[in-house]
Amino acid sequence: MEEIYAKFVSQKISKTRWRPVPPGSLQTAETFATGSWDNEENYVSLWSIGDFGNVDSDGGFEGEHQLLCDIKHHGDVMDLQFFDQERIVAASSTGCVTVFLHHPNNQTLSVSQQWTTAHYHTGPGSPSRSSAPCTGVVCDNPEIVTVGEDGRINLFRADHKEAVRTIDNADSSTLHAVTFLRTPEILTVNSIGQLKIWDFRKQGNEPSQILSLTGDRVPLHCVDRHPNQQHVVATGGQDGMLSIWDVRQGTMPVSLLKAHEAEMWEVHFHPSNPDHLFTCSEDGSLWHWDASTDVPEKSSLFNQGGRSSTFLSHSISNQANVHQSLISSWLSTDPAKDRIEITSLLPSRTLSVNSLDVLGPCLVCGTDAEAIYVTRQLFS
Amino acid sequence: MEELDSEPTVTLIPGVNSKKKQMCFDWGPGEMLVCETSFNKKEKSETVPGCPFIYIIRKDIDVYSQILRKLFNESHGIFVGLQRIEEELTGKSRKAQLVRVSKNYRSVIRACMEEMHQAAIAAKDPASGRQFSSQVSILSAMELIWNLCEILFIEVAPAGPLLLHLLDWVRLHVCEVDSLLADVLGSENPSKHESFWNLVTILVLQGRLDEARQMLSKEADVSPTSAGMCRILGDLMRTMPVLSPGNTQTLTELELKWQHWHEECERHLQDGTFASSPHLESLCKIMLGDEAALLEQKELLNNWYHFLVTRLLYSHPTVKPIDLHFYAQSSLDLFLGGESSPEPLDNILMAAFEFDIHQVIKECSIALSNWWFVAHLTDLLDHCKLLQSHNLYFGSNMREFLLLEYASGLFAHHRPSRLSSDCCSLWQLGVDYFDYCPELGRVSLELHIERIPLSTEQKALKVLRICEQRQMTEQVRSICKILAMKAVRNNRLGSALSWSIRAKDAAFATLVSDRFLRDYCERGCFSDLDLIDNLGPAMMLSDRLTFLGKYREFHRFYGEKRFCDAASLLLSLMTSQIAPRCFWVTLLTDALPLLEQKQVIFTTEQTYELMRCLEDLASGRPVRGEPGAQRLQEDIENTKLEMLRLALARNLARAIIKEGSLEGS
Q: Which domains are seen in chain A, by residue range?
């Protein structure tokens, strides 16, 4: 992890996302989007790490990311997702959900669609609506699902002006994040430590399944699904713990891994190499978790500065009936063997790392210290 | 009180005529509020319309630009690293560390300066271009001062190396020469370039003798007449004794060699070796440290401190730190020559040459428009153990005072710019600065942190984390309470309950629980089951919350047809006095269907208990004969009671029979 580039950008970064590469293409990631928060004016920005024609001969700009274009965003950017190659969906603290369109010809961004009051509170006894922050968004062309502090779930379609489906009072507490399980099912996490599965085919506002952390009701802040094994889900909590869940069985996490010292803001499986997982936290750290069974010999060198994981609880009930080759390395972990190697990716601890994204060999993350870090050699 | 050093500057408030109206003000953190009062100096003159505005006056507004945010963020990391430098580190390694930290700070300033410079070039309108340029000159002055302080106070260079450092300092800050050098060398015939001699002179003035020699050889190549002279002067340049870092020679040796060399130069001048070339002769004079010859090059020297360093180089190369101020003062006087008076920057540098750290910091505080510079420099010097003795007559020591000012400024950043006031984006940096102020940092943080607007829960969580890490329980409670109140206002009872549980706020949990129960009575069903069903140990926070949780449990038992469990839970809710009195009617009514079940659920014992509860309730009710709706309500209640009495009596009978027959068999 020798080459990690930092750039100070004069705004606190709340979200970073790679632009997806076209399916089947051999290109590596070269464009990413960021959203800012807590500034006087917030922006959604697009950056490029691609080489420019006129790179300094002495390598002055080699590897550093350059701003392509940006656009003002009303309110904090709470979440950001690429809808497709050109469109970015942004969730705002004003409850608004905006689709931005990127015009590559003249490098500009414009608003292509907006749902202004996607999330709102209704005061007691009064019809007046006050906006509620939209905390999470997830896209699966053509669908967009948003969740918010109002406990509401919205299902939008890119070509519809109104929400296709709204579940009011889906949650009594704040919904922090959402992801697709398998269409048309989604997964949400909330501030009382629950993981809920919703099926849009079902009417009513009841989830089809609730899984929860026992006891302390520690809020969950992020969720990601294993890219190949859709029943394997990872969540991160307020206490910095990483939980691995098998949504097919049980209502409790399969394993709880002690991780960061403060809120885990994001967790991501590597999309094409899912034995690798990445987490970032309020405590200013960014970790790479490697659960691949064939840890190469060089690992002792590679993992310098890392630490081994501690298993707190483990409760796989009955795995015998699952075919051996199908067992995910995340579920089959034997508590007696510390097989997960953890590496810290940032050179020194900073303020909160709010967001990260991985694509191929590239990783990008953004911090409250107003810096964006990029590396292009994750597995070097 | 210390007396004022200079007259304070006057700031005019637009729209307020201070001759006619009086103004009032109030101090805030890093800023002040000013408005017109309705008090008049004379009794009746308020026909003049007043100024309707309240003004926020801030001293350091100019400095909060986008680019400077990078300075704040990057230097924050350096600052935190510095505070963690092991105290045990002593001697050389500690000094090396501190010098490295100082260099890091300077490189951040330089990076900012460069970006600001680019911005100035790229600026579209001249006004903003000027603004950027003025920022560049401020930053450049900062770096200049910092660098000198680094040499004198942190590096503490002794005689000999001191001059080498000062030379580097001048070379770094008078850097136009490099572009000139490239320009001249790039031309077809360098020695015929119009600035050729200027360039050679500057190189000599800066002590870059190797480069100067190369330039002279170019001149020698094209003009055979002066080739000999150039060679001689070149030899003089080559043989000038200098202290090189790796060399082991003593200062005395160096001084001796230098004396010889100096005499040789002098001899050449007296012999008139360079008489036919005024350029070369003046170079030779410079190398002799001739003051008049140096002052002739005022234009090329730019400023008095360059003059000072060149003068030292060619006349006192082994100057001791203690003698610096003497040469500095005379250089300043000679250079200005009574034509102009020293600027603030001159005074600051002079104070540094006098090794008067406090004067440096004081002058900087007055001259610079923000606290960044003095706060960080003072902190660094404090780590060098240079400020121990100095205590202020107010607050804490100087380091802490300046850090507090700076950190408060970070918290105030952007705040007043809008009425919605949801922007103060540098506050997270300020927290760490407060942490390292042992005396007043904590109190300041407590006061500031409560004033951060909590626009989203995520932001609130970040603030909470800061408070929890520092065991600021009072602030944690207050933040949670704010969020709980907000949630109640938004009709988000589940959220409100979560926040009051997090704050361990029993009173508020009771209030929210009551809202839940009231909603239940009105609607006949519970909302937010996902929360209430999963309260766990948090249920114990308040009696009402326990009741809410248990009452819901009763409904669950009932729904699952676990009637016996439901019955005993219901009874215990009343007998243990957890259930509020006003809710007993509801609970007893809930018992009705259980009493009417086919099988007997309540035992005789339990039935007696229920009857006692019912009679307690009935006897406690005031008997009033009021007309209207209330009367109707009372009738309904009475009917309910009668029904209950009947059901209880029937259940008692069945229970007696059942228990009797069971025992009998």
A: 29-55+67-292+335-375 (2.130.10.10)
